[in-house]
Design brief:
By secondary structure, the chain is mainly α. It is built from four helices and no strands.
């Protein structure tokens, strides 16, 4: 790659980054409004969706404890697929429970930052 090509690519990347930073407040505001509209539309379904999330989390834990799914012994040898499955289910479970409890703990965090 020649020096002129490299400097031209670097200049184009810099100009693109500056253009992105210029429009970031407008884009984030539009994204926030769209997200608020989606939240308002989904709000009546929240109890059903929360219950479905918990049921599917229980199904994942049961399937992981039974060892169903995953790699078969005749396909390839994984180092320890059981631990990886438990790690994945644990991470998904923690994220799910954190997001389901968000309405309770986010108010406390917001109150502490505003105070």
């Amino acid at each position: 790659m020649s020096k002129a090509t490299a400097s031209g690519a670097l200049g184009l990347a810099f100009a693109s980054a500056l253009g992105w930073l210029c429009c970031l407040p407008i884009a984030s505001g539009a994204f926030g409004i769209a997200l608020a509209a989606v939240a308002a539309a989904i709000a009546p379904w929240w109890p059903f969706l929360a219950f479905a999330s918990l049921v599917l989390l229980v199904v994942a834990v049961v399937q992981t404890s039974r060892g169903s799914g995953g790699l078969k012994a005749d396909h390839c040898d994984a180092r320890n697929p059981g631990r990886r499955r438990w790690l994945f289910v644990s991470i998904v479970g923690v994220i799910t429970l954190a997001l389901l409890s968000l309405p309770w703990w986010s108010a406390e965090i917001t109150y502490r930052f505003i105070r």
